[in-house]
């Protein structure tokens, strides 16, 4: 695989080639996932839950994400590296620039922010300063206490329209990628069709430009409750590399996610 860039991701959307993204938090998995054909690696603030054992992502710090971004960047040659901006690390454009500087210096190629049109100035400011930005709409886990749990978003028509408006506003502000989490498949399909930039889904049905999963979910390592939209690819594959090759292939062929992983 040659180096994946924002231009390449955009071209993949135009060509109808599905983007496979997965989280990783260290060099070993970053290398393995890249060899398995993953296009993009996310250093997700999900690490607060899967690595640190917390009940939410809220305690994760910029230093935590920077540390794991450096680990992933050291294990990666060609994947496009996206780092999550943690809870309360982008409350103003100035704070966002300071946080993003730490993550870009750690080796990220893009930062991801949770939220809608109120982040337009922040997105524009980061982009002007040379930091590509990924949006994140739908179930934004940093707002778990506002939502009252990790719940499907955009089920009502009015709420769906609001998510569409936020997606348009973020694209206009300059985001170059958008994650849509835990929304009805039809809403994700509509937004993916309307926006020029690639849209990556998780629990958003099959009709986005790509998919993302938390690596522990894709490998069946998560114990207790696992979200409906996840799939254990290791169960059928026998080894980690083959499991992630299967994930990439099923995303490419539109076989994952199936209806059993989606909200309709
Ligand atoms: N292991 C793991 N996987 C993830 O996908 C993930 C994390 N951790 N940590 C950070 C956030 C939290 N996420 C979550 C967690 C739970 C649900 C969940 O329980 N969803 C219900 C939806 C129920 C409904 O409203 O219908 C589901 O059944 O999937 C969704 C996303 C996604 N992210
Ligand atoms: C689930 C993905 C999209 C994420 O934001 C994370 O891993 O933190
Ligand atoms: Mg996250």
How would you describe this structure to a colleague?
It contains twelve helices and eight strands. It has an eight-stranded parallel barrel with strand order 1-2-3-4-5-6-7-8, surrounded by eight helices. With 264 residues, it is an alpha/beta fold. It starts with 5 loop residues before the first helix and ends in a 12-residue tail after the last helix. Strand 4, helix 6 (120-128) and strand 5 form a beta-alpha-beta unit. The model has no long low-confidence stretch (mean pLDDT 98). It has helices spanning 6-15, 27-35, 47-50, 62-75, 93-105, 120-128, 144-147, 157-173, 185-194, 215-218, 234-237, 240-252, and strands at residues 19-23, 40-43, 80-84, 110-114, 133-138, 177-181, 199-202, 210-213. The protein has a single domain (6-261), classed as TIM Barrel (Alpha-Beta Barrel), CATH 3.20.20. The structure holds 5,10-methenyl-6,7,8-trihydrofolic acid, 3-methyl-2-oxobutanoic acid and magnesium ion. Magnesium ion binds at residues 44-46, 84, 141.
List keywords for this structure.
12 helices, alpha/beta, globular, 8-stranded parallel beta barrel, TIM Barrel, magnesium ion binding, binds 3-methyl-2-oxobutanoic acid, methyltransferase activity, 264 residues, methyltransferase, 14% strand
């Amino acid at each position: 695989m040659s180096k994946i860039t924002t231009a390449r991701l955009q071209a993949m959307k135009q060509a109808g080639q599905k983007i496979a993204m997965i989280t990783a938090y260290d060099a070993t998995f970053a290398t393995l996932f890249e060899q398995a054909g993953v296009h993009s690696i996310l250093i997700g603030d999900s690490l607060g839950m899967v690595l640190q054992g917390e009940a939410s992502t809220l305690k994760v710090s910029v230093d935590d994400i920077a540390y794991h971004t450096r680990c992933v960047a050291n294990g990666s040659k060609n994947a496009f590296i996206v780092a999550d901006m943690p809870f309360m690390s982008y409350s103003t454009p100035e704070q966002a620039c300071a946080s993003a500087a730490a993550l870009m210096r750690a080796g990220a190629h893009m930062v991801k922010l949770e939220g809608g049109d109120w982040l337009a100035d922040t997105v524009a400011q980061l982009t002007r300063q040379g930091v590509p930005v990924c949006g994140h709409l739908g179930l934004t886990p940093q707002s778990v206490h506002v939502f009252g749990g990790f719940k499907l978003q955009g089920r009502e028509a009015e709420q769906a329209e609001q998510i569409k408006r936020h997606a348009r506003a973020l694209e206009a502000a300059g985001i170059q990628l958008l994650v849509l989490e835990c929304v009805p498949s039809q809403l994700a399909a509509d937004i993916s069709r309307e926006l020029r930039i690639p849209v990556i889904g998780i629990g958003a049905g099959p009709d986005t430009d790509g998919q993302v999963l938390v690596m522990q979910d894709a490998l069946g390592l998560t114990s207790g409750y696992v979200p409906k939209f996840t799939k254990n690819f290791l169960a059928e594959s026998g080894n980690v590399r083959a499991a992630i090759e299967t994930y990439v292939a099923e995303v490419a062929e539109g076989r994952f996610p199936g209806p059993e992983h989606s909200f309709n």
